[in-house]
Amino acid sequence: MLYYLFEYLEKQFQVPGATLFGFLTFRAALAMILSLLISTIYGKRIIRFLQKKQMGETIRDLGLEGQAQKAGTPTMGGIIIILATLIPVLLLAKLENIYVVLLIVTTLWMGVIGFIDDYLKKFKNDKEGLKGRFKVLGQVGLGIIVGATLFFHNDVTMKEKLPIEEQRVLLAANPNIEASKLFQDEIKSTKTTIPFVKGNEFDYAKLITWISPSLEKYAWIIFILISIFIITAVSNGANLSDGIDGLAAGTSAIIVLTLGIFAWVSGNIIFSEYLNIMYIPRVEEITIYIAAFVGALIGFLWYNTYPAQVFMGDTGSLTIGGIIAVIAIAVRKEWLIPVLCGIFLAENLSVVMQVSWFKYTKKKYGEGRRIFKMSPLHHHYQKLGYHESKIVTRFWIVGILLAILSIVTLKIR
What we know:
By secondary structure, the chain is mostly helical. It has helices at residues 2-13, 24-52, 78-92, 98-123, 132-152, 164-173, 206-209, 219-241, 247-266, 269-275, 286-304, 313-330, 337-340, 342-365, 377-383, 388-408; strands spanning 191-193, 201-203. Strands 1-2 form a two-stranded antiparallel sheet.
């Protein structure tokens, strides 16, 4: 809203400083600062409100050190993250941008699912909360919305570079030619980025066109199914990572900041040309959303680091995972998720491996056996005697290394 206000003031009255709001970097910086202030200043008030409403977490006895002390800590703190993200976005982003709209819808959609889950656990004394099938149904619904929008919406396009020979001719005629002249017109495409591959791109339509070229018109089905899978997997991974103080929020901040870099360079035709990566018009606007989201996560960490004064609950963890997944799909970097979201992947796999091995050995030997002392993975290290602060810090370090590796894929083919 402020963006439109200052745009109007600049056009009508040439107000000094109003042009700053036309710069993406200025609005992104302002969004991060504003979200930090909201999450730290008003976060305390929200925590007090949750305490008054007796939103304390009920802790199951899992035999973990320091676990009993967490009982009564307010949960549902994901509300802080959601509010601290949406307010700066509504003030500073271009709200007609389809990518921004999708992220706002994702935040509200997943936030509501998580809120219902937390509400049922606390006020309805339902330990399971929202049934798993309803969570999955909500994730599938969001996947359909996101996949269909990104496939069919007219503003979701990409630009491919001209053939090499044409580029050479143009550069030979004018070495200082604008980067935009080296790209073709905007097109609809189901192409995505594949890391560590020389060609660096893959068209989802090829998954069915090898059968018959006429099947290309059904590529939207493949794209939507992949969107559903990614959103479901990442949101569940973030949910599993929310087990010890500061782990989910800190890891997610690293991931989202990295995706912000991808969004910025992918939406900038000069950087896209220099890095030889896919140019996606208008996607750079989600940098505003990402900046606000990172600020909200860091601000939430002010109260969530050990010893936590508030837990995010499913209100926060499901929302975080959904947002990360949608950003990755929007900037066509979803195949980097196993690397960039390696912490989430490890948490997911630890649970799958533990449960599968336990069931298999119980059936074969009559007694279930375990691979880890406990799952998800962070609890395994707690059982080994590591303090949760050390576990969280080391997971953050691993997350930073994975983020650097992900950024390096821009040039390593």
